Amino acid sequence: GRLSSTRASEIYNNPLYPMLDKVIQGTYFPGSTYKVVSVIAAIEENLVEFEEYHLCKGWYEYGRSSSFRCTHAHGLMNLESAVVSSCNVYFYMLSERVGMDRMARYARLLGFGTPPGLDLNHEKSGFIPTKQWYAQKYQEGFRIGHTLNSGIGQGDVKASILQVAQAYGAIANRGSVMEPQLVERITDYRGATVQEFMPVVKRRLEFKPETWDLLIRALDGVVNSPEGTAYKARLSHLRVAGKTGTSQVRAMRREPGQDPEESRWRNQDHAWFVGFSPVEKPQVVVVVLVEHGGFASKMSVAPAMAILDEYYKITGAQNQATP
Fold it and tell me: What is this structure's pTM?
C-alpha cells in the first residue's frame, strides 16, 4: 500500500531510527568490549607481565590533579582478573602503557575503523582516533586522558555491532579475521546447489599463542568465574566466553516539549554483551546491544544466552556443559 508523506515523516524522524540498519550503519561507543584491544597490544608488545598486579582503589590518578574513576574498588588486579571483573583502573594503566597509536594499530588489525566487508546498505567504518587526529581537531591537542578513555571503549572510539562480532570472531578462532557473509549457498527448485559460498579469511593475525590463551581464558572467566561480570546470567549447559560492556552516552539536553521518559531513556548507558561458544571449538559468535539499556550484566547477557541456547536447539549442535 501507499505511505502518506505525513506517516513517512513520522517514521524517518522517529528518534529510535527504525529505518536504520543498526548492525552495520549504527556506530556506538563499544565500552568494555573494546578492552581486548589493549590486552592484545600489551602482550604482543611485551608491555605487561601476566602476574603483574596493580591496586584498584576505585580511581586512577595521572598528572597533578586528574583522576579517572572505576565502578568500585576492585583491590589487586592482574591482566586476567582485570578482564574478568572489567576493572577500568587496570585498563587506564594498561592503555597508558600501550599508547594511543599502538592501540589504534591493533584495533584496525581486529577490524575496527574499517568497513567489515559485507558490502550492504553503506556499512559504516566506525572510528578509531589517533594522536594526530586529536592534534588537528582540538586546540589543546592530544592529552593522555584521550588514551585512557579510548582504552575502555569511550572517548571518540566508535564501532558497529558487526565490527564487534568480527573482532571477537577473530579472537574465538585465534587469529582469522573473517569476511562477513549472509548467503551460504544458492539452490534451485529441486534443492540442488547452484552456487556455494565458502568462508573467506580477510587476514590472519599471527599473534603469540599465549596472547590467545590468556585472552580466551579471561573471557571464559567473565561468564564462568564467580567474579565475572556475566556470571549471574550463565547457563549451566552452555560453555560460553564473552565480554560485557556498559558504554556511556553523551549527555543530551531535554528538548522543549520532549517526553521526560524519552529524555531519561536517551541519557541512559548502552548495554553490550559479545560471546562465543563452545569455548574450546567455537561455532558461533553472538552480539547483543541494548540501546540505552543501562548496566550490561543485567540487560544484555541474558538475551545473548537465550539466543545461543536456541541456536543449539535448532542446529542440534552439541556443546560442552559448564562444570
Answer: 0.91
